[in-house]
Each structure stands twice: as C-alpha cells, then as structure tokens.
Amino acid sequence: MRRKASLVLLACAVFFAALSPLLRWYAFPRLARIPANQYQDMVLEAKDATLLDYGSMRAKKVSKVTIVQTLKGNVEAAERIEKTAGRPVVVWDGLSYLEGPDGKMISRIPERYIFDAHSQDPVHATGESVDGDPVKRDGIEFKWPFLTQKRDYEYFDAQTRTTSPIHYKGTLTFRGLKVYYFEQTIPWTKVAMPKTMPVQGITPESVAKTGTTRWYSTVRKFWVEPVTGAPVYGEELHKEELRGGTLLGGRAKVTAFAGDVKMREDYIEHTVALVEHNRTLVLLMTSYLPWGFLSLGLLLLALSLYLEARGRRPEDPAPAQATEPEPVSA
C-alpha cells in the first residue's frame, strides 16, 4: 500500500510541477487579453483654463474645460483584421470631445487604434487613423503591456501623429496601489487643424488660406499599475496656439487652449477599483497559482519519497517466544 501511495503522490507531484510553467508561459499569453468588445469612457477636466473666443479671436480665462474620451471595441473590424494578422486583435474606435464651461463643443477628434490583444503592440491595417487621416503607429497608446517594466516605452502622440519615448521616472504609491510613473514632453510642434471646428463656416481649409497655423505642446504624465499595465491616473499640461496669418489681425500668436488636464475624481475611484480587481486575476496566472502549484509539487514529491523510504525499510525481527523450562530428571 505504501508503494502504491508513493507512486500516486509522485504522479501528482509531476503534474503540478509541470502545470506551474505551463500556466505562466502558455496559458497566460492566451488568457490575459483585452476583450474585443470592451467599452470605456473617461472624463478629464482643466480648471481655470485659457480658451480662445472665436468670436473676438482673443484668449480668455474660463472656469473649466471638459474632455470626454471614449474607447469602443469594434468586434466586426477586429475579426476581419485577425484573418490576415494571424493573432488576436482589438480595434478601438475612440473619440476625444472637448467642451467649454457652457457645454458647447470646442473640438471632436475621432481615432481608430488597432493593437495586439495581449502585448498591446500596434497592428497596422486599413482604417488606422486620427481625425480621418491615415496613420501608422509605432509604440503604445492608452495602455501599457501586462507586466510593465521599469523602462522607457515608445508612446504615440495623436496630435503630432508621431512616436517618441515616454520615460519611466520612478515607483510611487497611488491610492494604495504601487504604480510606475511615466512622463513624456512634446515640444512645440506644428499640427493639423481639427476637422470639426467650434464655429460653423470655419474649416481647416479656410483657416489655411489665411496663413494661420496651429501649434501644440504638452507634458504628459501617467501613473501605471505595472501588473495590468493600466493607467490609474493621468494628467497633461496642455498648450495650443494659433500663430501668424491674417486671422489674428496682425498678432504673432494667440492661445487657443491652455490648462492642466486631470482625471475627474469619480473616474479615478472607478478606475482604481477596476484595476485592483484585474490585478488579482493577472497575479493568479503569473504568480499565485504557478508558485502555489510548484510548491505543492515539491511537497508531494517529498511526501512520496518519504513513503517510498518507509516501504523499503527492513522490518524489525520478531521477538523470541518464551519457553517453559524442561524438568531435570534425577
């Protein structure tokens, strides 16, 4: 019985020891994926911002500018692209909608972002665009990869349509979570006018005829939870200017928008709670279960060897039976 039990324990030990790396290196890349149908939204605010009044073409202080960002998974487009890409793909149809304190639109910029469901690497396919213009992204956007490293990453800037490093600046604690802080500075760069303008009758083409150009600069900051790769907080020191041309009435430049853009508090709370939940799921596949299965395998192996050793131990000799003394004849 001991030998049978030791063989069963040995088989279980081998099973759990083999399951440990299998779960981490085979199952994790196939199970940890962004859902193709995911929908998320985010509201950011820039309080005490500077905004261009297109009526007078002069900058003025306003109480608040609101930016609503939405990302909607396009399942049909993802399935179509997967057929040629040969890997799981996510297609996000995004929209950045800016509105002033009166609720009126300042600009709306649609975007299509196509990326690998697990690694978050960009996937180039027809439809990849920003504000209707075809683009070819290099680097990440919106989300870092699972198990983010303490290093710089290439990050795509939708305004300039270019990619540049976003730098790892250190490890911090944010709302009880360990996060990696990243920062990217985009210097003053000439960028395209939005296709949708806040004043009816004004188009990018009509502005171009006046010789006026749009310039942009920002300092982008992200606090990223490294296990999930999800930003739990973001902030931008955002600046836009119109420069030159007859539209400004002889002035060299005017501020179109300037403000410290921050996530709204209720969205911070929701994001932190969601990331904490997803973090536990990722850790189950990358740490808790692999190490638990490996430890269990070693424990079962030790128990199997112990039973095997007990089974091979020689039995103690049986005690000699006491005999009655024989009578002595005279």
Structure commentary:
- The chain is α+β, with helices and mostly antiparallel strands and 330 residues long.
- It contains four helices and twelve strands.
- The protein has helices at 2-31, 75-85, 204-210, 265-312, and strands spanning 39-53, 58-73, 89-99, 105-116, 129-130, 133-134, 153-157, 162-174, 177-191, 213-225, 230-243, 253-263.
- A hairpin with a 2-residue loop joins β5 (129-130) and β6.
- The chain starts with a helix and ends in an 18-residue tail after the last helix.
- The model has no long low-confidence stretch (mean pLDDT 90).
Notable characteristics:
12-stranded antiparallel beta sheet, 29% helix, elongated, alpha+beta, 12 strands, 330 residues
